[in-house]
Design goal:
The chain contains 15 helices and 13 strands. About 20% of the residues are buried. The longest helix is centred in the last third of the chain and has 51 residues, at about 350-400. By secondary structure, the protein is of the alpha+beta class.
Length: about 425
């Protein structure tokens, strides 16, 4: 059984009276009018009773059917319905009220930095009584100033009304915490709320015409015509609900909008833009892959099943990248890595010098090894030729018969054999050179 707390109803009504909504503001305005009317009525009774009686006598004498009525029956209603006689007695409290409003407006102008004093008075009066509130229209994730005009609500401060067209959402926040997320429809923004961020719920398109990066071996590579499409993250349930509700065709998650607003990095230039954060995360996965691999790995893969583009696509679709995007309230819808090729800047030798030095060293080692092997084969051939020459001379000496002219015959045979060997070696050398 619910217990009645003493003073609970009084606290409830008091909180309602001070609440920052239009109903409470109108109640405050009516209560102030009632208070002023009460003071006027009391002033009529206490200080202007004779004036009321004179007015009642004039009314009674002007109408014959009222002459039969008691004078008091006419004077009492006039006490409540004829406030002008007691108006002079409430000029001072009404003036004090307006002076308090004017001084409050001066303070409000200084803390809210209003450009004009009249705007500060308007703002103070609207906050007190919920009247003459501005209205702005949000269309395509921006304030339509042509229809909305310029006001404090256009600068992000409440109170006022916001009309949100399809395709946009607004994150409102209080002084110390986020307040709520509003989308399609007409919404009231209280004086304690302000527009923190206007979010575009439609698919976002990020074309990247050209970006330059380097490979692991410091070869400059250029990425052209890359394309990323993304949107605010949403759950499967919210996407199904949006399909069933044609009036709200753009699904979104409140948590995703809060992450998109508060989880972006801050630089010296301010909060990072949404497209910059997405580019750093999604397109950064492509540049990271290029930075981690050599030029040959990207453009001349050795294996038949190796495809750098498929590996890049797998990298971008990896859970790590998806979670990083989700952390900023973003869902990757589609992407194209574009064209990856050698940059024209590689005409500068400085950019390819490490790569060139590596391959030049390997080529020099291969050439030196071949030259050493060639020299070794030449020496081996020369030694074999000398051995063959000596062997043929020995065989020749064994075959000739000793005679009186043996010395001359031996000399002639040695010269002839040597000439044959030299001619044979010369022909082999020429073949080697031409081959």
């Amino acid at each position: 059984m619910k217990k009645n707390i003493p003073g609970g109803n009084i606290e409830k009504y008091f909180n309602f009276y001070l609440a920052c909504n239009t109903r409470s503001g109108k109640v405050r305005f009516l209560s102030w009018l009632a208070m002023i009317w009460f003071f006027i009525t009391c002033s009529n009774i206490l200080f202007s009773s004779q004036v009321i009686i004179d007015v009642a006598q004039k009314i009674q004498s002007s109408a014959l059917f009222l002459s039969q009525l008691p004078l008091g029956l006419i004077a009492v209603p006039l006490t409540f319905l004829w406030p002008f006689s007691g108006l002079e007695f409430v000029i001072l409290p009404i003036g004090a009220l307006w002076i308090a409003i004017l001084f409050t407006a001066q303070y409000v102008r200084s803390i809210n930095r209003f450009t004009s004093y009249s705007e500060a008075v308007h703002y103070t009066f609207s906050c007190l009584f919920g009247l003459f509130l501005p209205t702005i229209i949000i269309r395509e994730a921006a304030i339509d100033l042509d229809e909305s005009g310029r006001s404090w609500l256009a600068d992000g401060k409440g109170p006022g009304y916001v009309v949100v067209q399809p395709g946009s959402a607004i994150l409102l926040e209080r002084i110390n915490s986020p307040s709520r997320v509003i989308s399609i429809g007409r919404h009231y923004v209280t004086r304690f709320e302000r527009i923190k961020q206007i979010i575009d719920l439609r698919d976002q398109h990020l074309p990247i015409d050209e970006e330059v990066t380097i490979t692991k071996d410091r070869i400059t590579v250029k990425i052209k015509k890359a394309y990323i499409r993304y949107r605010v993250a949403s759950s499967s349930r919210e996407e199904v609900q949006s399909k069933d509700n044609p009036a709200s065709p753009f699904p979104y998650s409140v948590e995703a909008i809060r992450k998109l607003t508060y989880n972006r990095s801050v630089t010296e230039k301010g909060v990072t833009e949404w497209d910059t954060a997405v580019k750093f995360t999604a397109f950064g996965a492509i540049t990271d892959y290029i930075n981690e691999n050599n030029y040959d790995r990207l453009f001349m893969p050795k294996g038949q099943h190796e495809d750098p583009r498929k590996e890049i696509i797998k990298r971008v679709n990896s859970p790590e990248v998806r979670n990083r995007l989700k952390n900023i309230g973003t869902k990757l819808a589609w992407f194209d890595i574009g064209y990856i090729g050698l940059s024209e800047e590689n005409g500068d030798i400085q950019t390819i010098m490490p790569w060139q030095a590596n391959w030049t060293g390997k080529t020099a080692i291969t050439r030196a090894s071949g030259e050493a092997q060639r020299l070794a084969y030449q020496e081996l051939g020369r030694a074999e030729a000398q051995a063959e020459m000596l062997k043929s001379i020995v065989n020749m000496l064994n075959d000739i018969q000793v005679s009186e002219n043996s010395t001359e015959n031996i000399r002639n045979v040695v010269l002839a054999r040597t000439a044959q060997l030299l001619e044979s070696m010369t022909s082999m050398y020429e073949k080697n050179e031409t081959g």
